[in-house]
Amino acid sequence: MKITSKGQVTIPQSVREQAGLHPHSEVEFEVRENGDVVIRAITAPAATARSAFERVRGSANAAQFKGMGTDEFMAFLRG
What we know:
Blueprint: H1 13-19, E1 27-31, E2 37-41, H2 44-56, H3 70-78
Antiparallel strand pairs: 1-2
């Protein structure tokens, strides 16, 4: 398997299936002390933040947010 000039590589389908990686999955990389590189799926934290923003996308002027202070709004986003 080769890395492209843009640093891209195709993860084989069998590996994606075993790792539970789907289109638009988020992953992170870890370089270990011995030089091995590990790729792992990111689960809850990023998905939770994304879903919080999706709940309020396009609704900055919605009645439910009028008069809400910054601290209250951040608490709402964080669930």
